[in-house]
Amino acid sequence: MSLYTRLEQRLERNSDDAGPVRGEFSLVRIGMIWLAANLVVTTLLTGTLFIPEVDYGLVILLIVVGTLIGAVVLVLVGNIGTRTGLPTMALTRGPFGTRGSLLPVTANVVILMGWSWVQAMLAGIALDFLVASVTGVSMPVLWAVVCQTIVVILAIFGHEGIARIEPWLAALMLAIMAYIFFVAFTTFTPAEYNAIPEAPTIYTPILVLDVVIATAISWTVLSADFNRFARDSKAGIIGSGIGYSLSTIISMALGATAFAFVILSGGEAIPFDPVSIIEPLGWPLAIVIFVSVMATNTMVVYGMVTTVVNAVPGTRVKFLPTALILGAISVIGATFFGLLNQFTTFLVTIGALFAPVFAIMIADYYIVKRGAYTPAILDARGGGRYWYLAGVNWAAVASWLVGAVLVYLWTYVWPTPIGATIPGFAVTFVLYLLLSLRERSKHPAEPSRHLSRTAEGVEDAPREARA
Predict the structure, then answer these.
(1) Cα separation of 323 and 342, whole Å?
(2) How many Cβ atoms sit within 10 Å of the Cβ of residue 161?
(3) Core-most of 105, 206, 244, 411, by most CB within 10 Å?
(4) Which chain regions cross the lipid bilayer (predicted)?
(5) What is the pLDDT of residues 347-387, one digit of tens each?
(6) Computed over its alpha carbons, how large is the radius of gyration of the chain?
(7) Looking at the whole model, is its pTM more than 0.90?
(8) Are 361 and 80 in contact (CB under 8 A)?
(9) At what angle are helices 283-309 and 140-156 packed, to 10 degrees?
(10) Residues paired with residue 25 on neighbouring β-strands, in sequence order
(11) What is the C-alpha end-to-end distance of the chain, expressed in Å?
(12) 111: three-class secondary structure by DSSP
């Protein structure tokens, strides 16, 4: 029996790739997974975009406020995953329909692939800095490929491998980050950071808030993928809420502080350039960047695979070959370093595409469907509650298009005093509810139930059985 066959059989025996699962992870374990997930270089470097365009103290406040707002969306969507056992994109079949869900599913795969490329590139740059400082040889593209290859190998082992490695990576990164903060604030005082003159060009306080919220939206595409492994709603909501919020605030604040440190040190401060902040702070920051990508990109690649495997219920798309194909594409794409120059546009695109999707998902599950999805969500055949019209819920599609267009316009054409993400989310939420009033009235309230997979097929098991 070949190594490939043995690995495929092992993954099949411990499959978490298709259909609903029964969660067992504690609050602390979920929290550590999310804590490690967003202690990541992209979040850290996002903080470098805001200084000196906005006052340092205000930037830190906006990071905290925006993170907490975005975390509300993340935990609400993640809780649907905990209650149903389904990953995020599989849940889009509820509001969008069995076929209609392929629209957000396709967008999600493209977005996650872009995330994996960007993070692999940044890890390659950080690792190249470490190697070049010793050997004098610089090969960032090669190291990006090496980093992404390691990530793909880790992702193949699914949530079990992620759960085992994430807590250790989180502890390591937190320790090094604490050291970097210590160096930053023992070299310069908080008053000196606050005294850096503002030099606004692109970013305003509202745009900073929007970007921070968009970061949470970008992570929400994976919220149910991992929170479905929580043993109950309490573990999922509190664990992911605290883990995500702490990691984002720490990472973005570190990025803003490191960039301000470079300015105060008289160095060349280049936004979203890891080398410009690594050089004055040295190898500890380079290690944080490298390790963070190993933790986060593993989740991203795993999320891509899970999305494809769960795209159409009832299909026999297997985890391992899907992981190998998508992994190969992610490794090749990690060589396209030009994408780093488009990161801000990339974040705005995520917000425009997915803030409306999550508004629709939250409205549909908690209000329209009254907090319950039935086993019909796993049925690819025509008919049933999630078939709508030829497999598409046009009310959801229309609401999504309106919301996405409005977020784009309010970002680039008609900026609003409260940004684009919040009003876009609100308009989409209300519009979908108005278009779905008849749908809600047709279905009486149902008890919350968990969809579980059995040897005989899919059954509707009581939620209490998950304890």
Answers:
(1) 26
(2) 15
(3) 244
(4) 32-51, 57-81, 102-125, 137-157, 169-190, 202-222, 242-263, 283-305, 317-340, 346-367, 387-410, 416-435
(5) 677 777 899 999 999 999 999 998 989 888 887 777 778 99
(6) 22
(7) no
(8) yes
(9) 50
(10) 230
(11) 38
(12) helix
